[in-house]
Amino acid sequence: MKRYEKLGHQLTVYDRVVTRIADEKAQCAADLASKGESFARVANLLSIGTRSRAQQLVGRGRRQPVIFAFRDQNGELHGDAHLLATIPHDLARLQFEPADRDLFFAGHLLQVYFGHVDEDTVTPSLYAYTTVDATAGERRIRPTQRVHDILFGTHRQSIT
Fold this sequence. Notes:
The protein is α+β, with helices and mostly antiparallel strands. The chain is built from 4 helices and 6 strands, in the order αααββββββα. Strands 1, 2, 3, 4, 5 and 6 form a 6-stranded mixed sheet that branches.
């Protein structure tokens, strides 16, 4: 009986260690992705196997940044610009080229502000946009639903 109790204890410790390693791997994947690494590169660096598995780990490791505001070509701010003063954020450029060329911002080069915003504060959109940044290169980032609605014309109001 002692042998089985010892084995049971060892398996419990093993499970805790494996869980801790998996959590650390997910955090590393999230950190790499937040620095602009592609999911394929994250998978390769962490020996995860596939791009989609890396994407799952990133989602588990940390919530993704969202585009919460943008500046148009005229310098006007749109979206949740009031968050600029309260959360750490990064900048990128978005060449907005939707299929509907009649949209107000179609063809515009926009400066987007993105960061980790509490989902109780904003609602992330289901869509993602490809941004271009001089240091990070291309990156897919989801906008907030409000930013998405502004870009696709359901809101025309700006926040200054």
